[in-house]
Specification:
Mean pLDDT: 96
Number of helices: 12
Helix content: 25-40%
Strand content: 25-35%
Number of domains: 4
CATH topology of the largest domain: D-amino Acid Aminotransferase, Chain A, domain 1
Oligomer: single chain
CATH superfamily of the largest domain: ATP-grasp fold, B domain
Number of strands: 22
Radius of gyration: 21 Å
Low-confidence stretches: none
Shape: globular
Largest sheet: 9 strands, antiparallel
Distance between the termini: 44 Å
CATH class of the largest domain: Alpha Beta
Length: about 425
């Protein structure tokens, strides 16, 4: 098979690395890719939103399967555009990708089909939202309705913060049109767990659990980011939680989307909060999480292409997912100043120490190739993943590995996976 991956981050590098090991793949492309992905795939200089150019490339190069890693092209209808040309593509169509594309839609869906989630209100104008927040209890959570690179969620401890948040989202358009509508949600407390799944429209196969660290600074302080590190599996995701979610969340979501005429094929990411009242859905994503993919995919035993093909063909009921009986931890090496302003173009050293090293993976997110070697080219630069027989060993291995890699203005959280010490 010839396979094309659409995207350029650490998630796409993890997908490309796994796809390169498939017995079915002869040739692997990635558009636009990055310097790390270029080690396992041929990178093509076409942007993820350039649908016509991507389709032409797929046709000219006789691509057998296109895998869309990013949210923006999925929500923008890339799957519909490919399918219209008779091309095989893995991911939800535009009608289904709204599960991530609109927070208001997903909240209304959960309410209609009794899928447990936080109570909420939706607002289309700032004054109505402010009037509601004047009388609300605190904290409150504000969510931009549309896509905001994983950063469109504001946790507001006070009325003043909430009003400022509404202005930032709806009036100042901090995240552009994503803030035209906002969801105001009750603040839930508890452990957060990420659960990824493959879906073929009717059948769902759940992957192993993970936990992300969204805040920029140690102790879960600072601004929300795209994710500063992950671990898998989550010790807080117990068999009881799994049983509850399989019954009330996972299949219920797939069935609800089908009932709405929005049959979902691809990846559904479930963000779950383990509250004192039981598990509740925080959010849905319509693709692999980033950096959750960097700990879940390396632990997956299955041939990822075979699973994706089963999703496209509606034959997922014949697939059983298998994961290694171990653990993985990913620590993001970022540029100092992320997620706000930061410098780029610094030389990265030490990557060669991981060539062929078993149970260690360096997934590139924001890198490019310069004359002297790999250079930083983004806020999140690398995802350093290590396995271990348990989470404590995996964490030790991951942090030891981060010491081997250096670049100017390197920044990372030092407490990824700290929660596991409490188990």
């Amino acid at each position: 098979m010839k396979v094309l991956i659409v995207g350029s981050g650490g998630r796409e590098h993890a997908i490309a690395w796994k796809a390169s090991k498939s017995r079915h793949v002869d040739k692997l492309y990635c558009a636009p890719g990055n310097a790390g992905i270029a080690q396992v795939a041929e990178c093509v200089d076409i942007g993820a939103m350039e649908f016509d150019r991507l389709i032409s490339f797929a046709q000219e190069n006789k691509i057998d399967l296109t895998i869309v890693g990013m949210d923006e092209p999925l929500v923008g209808g890339i799957v519909d555009a490919f399918e219209k040309e008779g091309l095989r593509v893995f991911g939800p169509n535009e009608k289904a990708a709204i599960l991530e594309g609109s927070k208001a839609f997903s909240k209304d869906l959960m309410e209609k089909y009794n899928i447990p989630t936080a109570s909420y209100e939706t607002f289309n104008d700032a004054q109505s939202a402010i009037a509601y927040l004047e009388k609300a209890d605190y904290p409150q959570v504000l969510k931009a309705d549309g896509l905001a690179l994983g950063k469109g969620v504001l946790i507001c401890e006070t009325r003043e913060e909430a009003i400022e948040g509404v202005k930032a989202l709806m009036e100042d358009k901090k995240f552009g049109s994503a803030g035209n509508t906002i969801v105001v949600e009750e603040f839930m407390t508890g452990r957060e767990v990420s659960v990824l799944s493959f879906v073929d429209g009717k059948t769902i196969r759940v992957m192993t659990s993970a936990q992300d660290h969204k805040r920029a600074l140690d102790g879960d302080k600072g601004l929300n980011t795209g994710g500063m590190g992950t671990f898998s599996p989550s010790p807080f995701y117990t068999p009881e939680v799994d049983e509850f979610c399989k019954k009330h969340v996972y299949q219920a979501t797939v069935d609800a989307m089908k009932a709405e005429g929005r049959e979902f094929k691809g990846i559904i990411f479930f963000g779950i909060m383990l509250t004192k009242d039981g598990p509740k859905v925080l959010e849905y994503n319509a693709r692999f999480g980033d950096p959750e993919a960097q700990v879940v995919i390396p632990r997956m035993k299955n041939d990822i292409i075979e699973v994706m093909e089963a999703c496209v063909d509606g034959k997922l009921d014949g697939v059983e997912l298998e994961f290694e009986d171990n653990a993985a931890v990913c620590v993001i090496l970022a540029s100092k100043g992320y997620p706000e302003s930061y410098e780029k173009g610094f030389l990265i050293t030490g990557l060669e120490k991981f060539d062929g090293k078993e149970d260690y993976y360096v997934f590139h997110a924001g890198t490019k190739m310069g004359k002297e070697g790999f250079l930083t080219n983004g806020g999140r630069v690398l995802g350093v993943t290590a396995k271990g027989k348990n989470l404590i060993e995996a964490r030790e291995n991951a942090y030891e590995a981060t010491k081997q890699i250096n670049f100017e203005n390197k920044y990372m959280r030092t407490d990824i996976g700290k929660a596991i010490d409490e188990v």
